[in-house]
From TrEMBL:
InterPro entries: GH, GH_1_N_CS, Glyco_hydro_1, Glyco_hydro_1_AS. Keywords: Glycosidase, Hydrolase. This is 6-phospho-beta-glucosidase. The active site is at E374 (nucleophile). Belongs to the glycosyl hydrolase 1 family. Pfam families: Glyco_hydro_1.
Length: 476
């Protein structure tokens, strides 16, 4: 039996442009949808597409615009990841850095150069770049002119962007992901895909239309990447986390299965190349009609993804019957409180075995290599008097998850490419916009209101993770 993880396993960490770069209008960058998501009480309504960002109060604060200023500090930050021994780094490009409005004929050279410098520095330090093409980020102009992904026009704009980056980074970037947490479109449509709603419209229909456009774009991008660089690997990316039934009442089990499908839907199309029967039936039942072109079926069928990337923070629980006393909505996904699990300060339930369960479900369903591109614990960290940060809770969370991940590989035979815990350096939280919710091995001096020196400081988990990578997980 194979022991441990394979040689060349991609240990690393993950970030996203809008949560760490800042430099929001620098280097020719245009505004993106995500730059319009405010901190505070209006955040959720904007992310859900139920409040127009144009109506926000004058003094709103937009954390994505400054973030942790990686735009100017990338070299120092890459040195830190190299010191931890990263084999890879997952990060995203801001689309509007490269195509400021999304409609230019040619890309913005300064934007491309910015990412080229980063990629070259990573390669120099033997860190494999893993790039998310679109992480919650659409050029604002495309949202204003076309209503973002509800329009098919976005497919052309996205492909122009893909062509520019595939050609430029040919031979340098091997792993691409088309859309971060593509299923987030169903839960937080403005954050996930720049979609907001007009009064009285059929929201589910709009979401399915946007989903279809993204799915076709993803398939065409996969084809294009393979044409330009046959060595490249293109993945889908799912916000994963198994739904458990509240009880063994078959009604609860059925409910859990249906909930899982809301998320699997996207990956079923991206990985198997066709709309699953249950989705077609649902659209029929709910009288949803979406615009599809005759060639779409073949495009989806012929251009499936090479690997399945996913984020996993927690499992979820659901019942067919109401249980308001234990309902929580710690994140975008409503869940019941599972009595067997503890939760983070933000109510995200901690379930390491759930990672193994989720990996097995995904592998059984798709039989393609998996890549865990997000996992981690958001927590409040305090700096001790002597300047150290003892984040034992984070070490405990990650150790337990990595142990289950290794079992899934070693004992269940799951094919796994790598593991990039989320927010290897503290950054802005996607759901809350806070800095206080920290994930990093590296602390960044900045608070919720945007104050701080931005100084980087290693936490206890920094040395711990360095050791995990050096021993390929065997020290755990
Ligand atoms: C995922 C996103 C990330 C991220 C992470 C943690 O949904 O892909 O962008 O931030 O969750 O969530 P949060 O920042 O809300 O704690």
């Amino acid at each position: 039996m194979m022991k441990g993880l394979p040689e060349g396993f991609l240990w690393g960490g993950a970030t996203a442009a809008n949560q760490c770069e800042g430099g929001y209008m620098e280097g020719g960058k245009g505004p993106g949808t995500v730059d319009m998501i405010p901190w505070g009480e209006n955040r959720l309504a904007v992310m859900q597409g139920h409040m127009d960002y144009r109506e926000l109060p004058e003094d709103s604060y937009f954390p994505a615009r400054e973030a942790i200023d990686m735009y100017h500090r990338w070299k120092e930050d890459i040195a830190l990841m190299a010191e931890m021994g990263f084999k890879c780094c997952r990060f995203s490009f801001a689309w509007s850095r490269i195509f400021p409005t999304g409609e230019e004929e040619a890309p913005n050279e300064e934007g491309l150069k910015f990412y080229e410098n980063i990629i070259d520095e990573m390669l120099r330090l033997h860190i494999e770049p893993v790039v998310t093409i679109c992480h919650f980020d659409v050029p604002l102009h495309l949202e204003q002119k076309y209503g973002s992904w509800r329009s098919r026009r976005l497919i052309d704009a996205y492909l122009r962007y893909c062509r520019a980056i595939f050609e430029r980074f040919k031979g340098k970037v091997r792993y691409w992901m088309t859309f971060n947490e593509i299923n987030m479109l169903m839960h937080l449509p403005f954050m996930g895909a720049g979609i907001s709603f007009k009064k009285g419209e059929n929201e589910l229909e709009v979401k399915y239309q946007a989903a279809h456009n993204e799915l076709v774009a993803s398939a065409l991008a996969t084809r294009l990447a393979h044409e330009i660089d046959p060595e490249s690997k293109v993945g889908c990316m799912l916000a994963a986390g198994q739904f458990y039934p509240y009880s063994c009442d078959p009604e609860d089990v059925w409910e859990a299965m249906k909930k899982d499908r809301v998320n699997y839907f996207f990956i079923d199309v991206q990985s198997k190349g066709e709309y699953p029967a249950y989705a077609k039936k649902q659209m029929e039942r709910e009288q949803i009609t979406i615009q599809m072109e005759p060639e779409d079926e073949a495009i989806l069928r012929e251009n499936t993804v090479d690997y399945i990337a996913f984020s996993y923070y927690s499992s979820r629980m659901i019942s067919a019957h109401p249980h308001p006393e234990i309902e929580t909505s710690g994140n975008a996904f409503k869940t019941l409180r599972n009595p067997w699990l503890k939760a983070s300060q933000w109510g995200w339930q901690i379930d390491p075995l759930g990672l193994r369960i989720t990996m097995n479900s995904l592998y059984d369903r798709y039989q393609k290599p998996l890549f865990i591109v997000e996992n981690g614990l958001g927590a409040v960290d305090t700096i001790q008097k002597d300047g150290t940060i003892s984040d034992d809770y984070r070490i405990e969370y990650l150790s337990a998850h990595i142990r289950e991940m290794i079992k899934a590989v070693e004992e269940d035979g799951v094919d796994l490419i790598g593991y990039t815990p989320w927010g290897w350096i503290d950054l802005v939280s996607a759901s809350t916009g806070e800095m206080k919710k920290r994930y990093g091995f590296v602390y960044v001096d900045k608070d919720n209101a945007g104050n701080g020196t931005l100084e980087r400081r290693k936490k206890k988990s920094f040395d711990w993770y360095q050791q995990v990578i050096a021993t390929n997980g065997e020290c755990l």
